[in-house]
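Listing S7. Sequence submitted for prediction.
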Amino acid sequence: MDDPAAEPALINPLPALAAADPPPLTAAQFAALSRLSARLPARWIATRRRRRFLFLALAAPGFLAVFATPLHRQFLLLVVGFLLFGAAVLFRVRTEPLFLRADAADLWPFPHSPTSASKDSRHA
């Protein structure tokens, strides 16, 4: 009888990949991050969890417009809902990598931020 501990490669043929550090921020990305932090309230973008709630708040009007279409029976309402929801998704896709890179480089949150500097859970 073969010992499974003797051949670990057969049990897990693919080794676990370590999480690679994201590349550093470029000057343009840092400027975009500075503009975002100046325009949005610091408490809304301080942690990953709060940025997810911000995304939900931005996506809610489009989501409600799409699902209210059968009630109102207007095609324009459906189109506007998809556009609003798409804008929220695009905002999230464009901004979240900036915040993650800045967090990995310990540039985020900015020192003048009134929120705590405690790290947010990855699965929060």
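Caption to Listing S7: primary sequence and predicted structure tokens for the chain studied. Helices lie at 8-11, 27-39, 42-45, 48-72, 75-104. The chain has a mean pLDDT of 78.
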